[in-house]
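Morning F.,

Quick status update on the modeling queue. The single chain you submitted on Monday has been processed. Sequence for confirmation:
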Amino acid sequence: MRAVARILLGLAVTAWAAAAQAQTYPNKPIRMIVSIAAGSVTDVIMRAAAAELQQRLGQPLVIENVGGAAGILGGKACAQAAPDGYNICIIYHSTLSFNPLLFTNLPYNADELVPVSRLFFLVEGLFASSEIKVNSVAELKTLAQAKPDGLNYATLGEGSYPDLFLKWMNNQWGTKIVGIPYRGGGPAAQAVAANQVQVTRFGVGNFVGVIQAGKVKALAVSSAKRSPVLPDVPTFAEVGWGDYPGQGWWGLAAPKGTPPAIVARLSGEFQRLFSDPKFVEFLDKQAVVAAPTTPEGFVAFLKQDRQDAEKLIKIANTRKTEFKE
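Structure tokens below.
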């Protein structure tokens, strides 16, 4: 009986401590791990979000960019961080849905990261360097088939969403366009603009500047209807890719063991921000679609997203491989 009483007392003390921590949270800066390179559209969005949330939370959110390896490095940093509410993680579809299906020996367990809130969907586009003189997906296909291994394509690493799309496209066209890894959409956009790579698929927001400068052409966008940012560019459905499964997204997660009360607080604050009309207007200009959820809504979404990832991986004819840092 004494042993049981000690256990119950210990549980009560733990619950009291967690409740007290939640009531005073946050009382110091919060580290925000962003799984993409600085300068990418997601980085721009999260820096704007951090400035807004500092006013709401009363503490600064300090961004740490951990890009590369299809979100694996960011996932690892998240999993290894202290679960105290002062380490939060901006992750994406590769981190939780694709990587567990594509790699063995991952340095983190995707199913142990705590889903806090899905934040937004990306409006993605297929982009080509102006140097290769193509103006449509059909013309790109013709060029790629004429030079089966003569084009390079920017990815976020083996198994990333851009990489899977490349493999799918190569399978569809019978081509051998070569994937080159970059740490984010910003660096990828600059690489296409400089013709270091000739084509890629990334979030539209990364490419607006280089398109306006005439260095890159947008050939198609992934949204259901034409993007107001690129109104003259056809949708994937219009160019015959309407049945391609999946859509890129970004969300907020936390290390395993983060107190539920803090998870709820963070989710609520991020949901309110990503639903605020002024912030949604800002997101529209970055060519992303606000889509905040509760933790429970994020969990349900992830279940379906993992199933969609399985379909895409099968279509891309990609096998599971060992991850090596």
